[in-house]
Amino acid sequence: MSKTNAVRILDSNNISYSLHSYDVNENDLSGITVAEKISADPDSVFKTLVATGDKTGALVFCLPVTEELNLKKAASVSRNKSIELVKVKDLLNLTGYIRGGCSPIGMKKKFPVYIDETAQLFDEIYISAGIRGMQIKLSPSDLSAATDASFCNLL
């Protein structure tokens, strides 16, 4: 399998990670299903959501697949009055990634990234490798370093 942008960036920054592949069911792209397929604790598998803030433009939020983004908290931590999630049809053009394969690492442009603070409860977490069917396992601090992310309460 060829390397994704996310993997190339981790390699170029000498960040330690492991890759975990799984069979993709186009009818079920849920993070809970991904966690089951890679035999991971669902709370340690993080989804990537892309939103637009009324003041800042595009923003990236990483949170456990078992949780929902609190839009008010997300707006507050990103210094916006309001935010709204990017429509699925706009995701590829904005980030270079598709739904179910959106990684916070290696998007077309560098956007502010916010990781839910629960990531720090784990030695390692999983995030999308940038394609459906592959997850990256790495430490939360390494993810933060690779994306210049802030840890905050998003739930």
Task: Walk me through this protein's architecture.
The protein has one domain (5-150): Alpha-Beta Complex (YbaK protein), CATH 3.90.960. It is α/β, with parallel strands linked by helices. The relative contact order is 0.25. The chain starts with a helix and ends with a strand. The model has no long low-confidence stretch (mean pLDDT 96). The radius of gyration is 14 Å and the shape is globular. It is built from five helices and eight strands; from the N terminus they run αβαββαβαβββαβ. A hairpin with a 5-residue loop joins strand 6 and strand 7 (134-138). It is 25% helix and 25% strand. It has a five-stranded mixed β-sheet.
Task: Describe the structure using short key phrases.
three-stranded antiparallel β-sheet; alpha/beta
Q: How do you describe this structure in short?
A:
By secondary structure, this protein is an alpha/beta fold.
Write the layout of secondary structure elements.
Layout: H1 5-12, E1 18-21, H2 31-37, E2 46-53, E3 57-64, H3 71-77, E4 83-85, H4 88-95, E5 113-116, E6 125-128, E7 134-138, H5 140-147, E8 150-152
Parallel strand pairs: 3-5, 5-8
Antiparallel strand pairs: 1-7, 2-3, 2-4, 6-7
